[in-house]
Amino acid sequence: MENIASHAQRRTSETLVAVWLLMLTASILPDILFNEFLTLSLPNLLWIKLGLLLLAIGGSFIWDVLKPTRFFTIFLVLLLLIESLRAMILESPDWQGYFGGSSPTFTEWMLGNQLLRVGAALLMIGMLFIWRGKSGLVYVKPGRLHAEVQPIPLLGIKAGEITWARFGWLAALAIGAGTAVFLFANGTLQADALTDLLPLMPFDLLFAAMNAFAEEVSYRAVLLAPLKAVVSPHQAVVLTALFFGIAHFYGVPYGVLGVVMATILGWLLSKSMIETEGIFWPWVIHFVQDVLIFSFMALGFVVPGG
């Protein structure tokens, strides 16, 4: 019995390592390493990633270690393909022609971008439904808004002390305030420029809502659903947080700092999604931050990717 238990534990550990390697393969970490640190251009890197992931899917039929990772890997492949298609459409002259051509305004460019992001998210939701029906959509529904926040020792939060109905708003305000301080400190915003933002605010709010929804679906709900049966909730939170963080290397803020900040945010959002079994609180927190970032982008005071 002891040998059987030891073997099962070793296989579980090996599966966990496999999940991490699959996630890092599908992330933009290989792109960052080749482009930024090795200064090498690999135009076929996407196909290399897809090839490795497809090999892992094939291997899951013959190797017990990979078997639990099969559906997680399938959704990584779908995510890569859909995101690649989205990028191709976004860069196509035909699509750009509908949204300001080669010199779009912020509103035109963002509308074209967010329509594709939401479209990609809806497509992924459809894939979840095909996979498991309504049970596959567990993290797409609003969720249990009054669920208890599980302990966060770093913040001094103990079990049963606070619910997401309260902590969600506090987290949104705290992250929003921190983001605002960072943007004011690192941007070039002039106080009188805030008046220029007022006409753009309705669009800013709309785009922030769309982006928060799209990213919560694509970077969290779609990955957490197949991870539920593979790794512990803690590991699922850390995995998706890092995947989300790496994806923001070319965002605002740019580089390693952006990855660290987005990973911390991703940890909180993934924790919220798992504990509430829904998208509402992650979306709210994400939305508040995006409103601030998009406001600075609209005024041209911060630029993605540097």
TrEMBL record:
Keywords: Hydrolase, Membrane, Metalloprotease, Protease, Transmembrane, Transmembrane helix. GO terms for biological process: CAAX-box protein maturation; proteolysis. Pfam families: Rce1-like. It comes from the Bacteria. InterPro entries: Rce1/LyrA-like_dom. Coiled coil: none annotated. GO terms for molecular function: endopeptidase activity; metallopeptidase activity. This is CPBP family intramembrane metalloprotease. The chain crosses the membrane at residues 16-34, 46-66, 71-89, 109-131, 167-185, 252-269, 281-303. Residues 203-291 form the CAAX prenyl protease 2/Lysostaphin resistance protein A-like domain.
